[in-house]
Amino acid sequence: MKAVNTQTGLELTAATNAEGYYRFVLVPPGAYNLSATAQGFAKAELTGVVAKVGQVTDANLTLGVGAVSEAITVTAEAVQTTVSQPDAVLNETAIQSLPINGRRFQDFVTLTPTAQVDTQRGQISLSGQRGINTNINIDGLDYNQPFFGGIRGGERSNNAFTIPQESIKEFQVIAAGYSAEFGRSSGGVVTAVTKSGTNNFRGSAFYLMRHKDFARKNSYFTGLETFLNGREVNPAPTQQQFGGSIGGPIIKDKAFFFGSYEQQIFRNPRQVVFDLLQNFTPTAATQEAFDYYKSLQTPFEQTNDAKAGLIRFDYYFSEANRLNLRYNQSDNNALNANATGNALFPTTTSALSNNGTEKDKTYSMTGQLTSFFKSNLVNELRAQYTRERRPRLANTEAPVVQTAIGNFGTVRFLPTTQYDWRYQVFNNLTWILGNHSVKFGAEINHTYADQTFAFNQFGYFQTNGTNVATLLDFLSYTPSITTGVVNRFDTTNVTYDRQIGNGRLDLTVNEFALYSQDSWRIKPNLTLNYGLRWEGQFNPAPDTSNATIFNKVRGFNFPSGHTVNPSYIPDVANQFGPRLGIAWDPFKDGKTAVRAFTGIYYARTPMLLLAAPLNNFRNPPGDVSIRLPFTVPAGNLNNTVYKQLKLIGIDLNSFALDKLPVLTVAQVQSVANALGLGTFDPFTGASVITWANDFKNPKSYQFGGGIEREIGRGLTVAVDYSQVNTFYLQRNRELNIPAPRIRTDDVAQRPFFGLRSGTPRPIPTLGSIQVRESTGRSVFQSMVLRANLRRKWAQFSAFYTFSRNLSNDDNERDAGGVAYENGFNLASEFNYGRLDRRHQFVANSVFFLPAGFEASTAIRLLSGLPIDASYGSDANEDIAGPDRPYSAPGVPFKRNAFRNNSQYNVDLRVQKGISLGEQRRLIFSAEFFNLFNFENVQLSGAQVTNYCATTSQRDCGFGAPTNANFLRIKDVTTGNYLFNNNAGSVFQMQLGARFQF
User: Fold this and answer.
1) Which of 337, 354, 332 is nearest to 270 (CA)?
2) CB-count exposure of residue 385 (10 Å: 0-12, 13-18, 19+)
């Protein structure tokens, strides 16, 4: 048997066994001509056999009796009859032709079944799993952000590409049931391959313009302009993208190169406007702060520029050895992209000083060596070194002042830096033994991260209340007035937080894996796929040198029954994942596949979750703040920020609002002595996070099955079912909280903690103490209907998914905070998960029309996600998670009991190609995003998610909602849009030109 790549000349040979089975393994994606010869038989040929990423292509040839020179041409089969799990592949035609707004290749994944964008972090979710628990592979190696989780680039990858789309040849998505060769995902895996050069020089150059004037506003945005007193809204800022690629031979049939580069330029003009001051008339008591806020109302430009490049080198030493090397790099620079408020608004209430720059740089170097020791014994060695820098810079370094009017000064969490690197070595050995195709593999994955992150590095003044005059009075120094607040911040409604800890952290995590798997062709029409994978995650140990905090927490018996040892983060090594699947061709014609699979799968834990437990108990602790004013005995008049700082010689009246002092840690701590508080614990009120000593990585039990049938030439239909039952999902739990009690005068009989009413915490000298534990749970079930068409004149894929996703916690690697109402009883938490979409219909098509025209579509129709109804205040006084209404005494609302609006999006691309010679072509394109300009308003914010009109009505929830605007798009009184809701993208048009040669 011989297979020859039609573009590179790569030749592969294999021999059949006694039963006539043959197999080519580790075949680079592409088109091949296949031939079979045997002495005394006619030669059989099969042309244009396409090898796709991650798929098995069946090609059956029959040798007929006749002259050796006689050729018999046959065709390849369309259905994978030896594969146990369904998949979806987006080929090179789809990637080149489908409309895509932003050129992030991962956005194509949302055109496959069960895939969606996680609403919290913007990462790809498969089979209802958290986005950070999806594994992304490029060229067989991890392309994940080890610190934040998700795809390389983390959340910045949602705004800019990290690898050129021009370089992606195709990719495969397996939503559930993937083989033992892959791991670190509780749902599915995305496997992409990059392009390589060929024996012909080929290249392209393109330019795309999505001008702001090409967008069309819908009624939501015209209403928004009215709401903003006629200010023009720019719903789709101008974006330009350009780049190209080139590839070809260095030595024909032996050495090849490929390179690509893309760049993005994005500009969004915006304005700082403090809306609450628009109709306000200042007085002597408010004039200073009023004038200062007005001086901050300046225009600015928000950017989002990106560059990405890739170089790949392929070398065929011989038929027995081939090597490929790849280097890619990206650079994202987004000025004034922090604290921007509602991104759809042309204005923000954050001053330019309360903004910053988002940066991200990635570097990846990979290599793969494939060696054929024998025709039936093949070794594959893959390795990579990747790193990423994620600095987030502040526009200024000064204390931040936060009021209901707006904010100025340094963003609370800026500046920060994050740097990580990974080296990964993966080796597998494939052994073809009779009817068995056996693989053995081992992997080392070493990750390192360094982060500097801390809140309140320059001080944080927070003022409570919403009355504009009162707030301005607090900020103004007005010695001439006789009523009101004379001194700056001289009121108990102002607090001051100052970071006293050390925000720097570096850590190392090691992951190892071993696996073996076999594809056993029991009969020509029956294949058994089985395997076993082990993987382990080995974590660092915390620094617990801060005996003051450590000794208070270690071994303490909290009212919830929990005890913790902050000095211990367990390794997760007992992770064995057996996999089993069958594939059956009942009619033995290669046109039907009946499939079933089951297995155990594990996901990794992102390094970010380790950060706080590693550094919160060291000396000085990481990211811990101290708060003024300190509590003083009754009768002590030094009970405000102003008065307590005045005791140590700092008079805030002597500093202008734009030059507020950056206090040292020693200065803030010295206030205690000046107040005569005696022995003062400098960590009083500190909030810390630790790690559960029995923590485990997420573990899912998966099973499913289905049937696929070719019903016409190039047309297949399928139906399949899958279930993913996931345990040990990470949850944050509050420990330093008293046991709840029921108030006799509470008609709702709500468990009450009373922290705001004076009930002390179990460890009264500390604030919140949270533990990261693995007690979350989810169950995902789906039925998928599939249709695929591949013909010369068109290709088409459509998927309808009917699913249900239940869970009891949905946090997406939250750095802190809890997501439940009552940690002593989580029964009401198990309900629809945040990602529960009951219906999804996605489709894509490419039609090749006469006269060089092409038309392609991308369709995404999604039913609404759940909404969690809120009571509207901290009704149980736990100073923690959301409080929900009660439907009867002692009966809280279920989590996520209501539904958001559906989302509909249809994109269209039309292009015309003009031939300029045998190999040159000029293509003009027009892309239309949200073709029908659907509003796609998503309900959001307290104005529409609060069930109750007033938080004093404890029986709110016993009947209909008392908030008239609950789950509404428009105000019931005025008929105007409620703009705390979020609208989807408007109709946008993008024009482009491409030159191919």
Assistant:
1) 337
2) middle
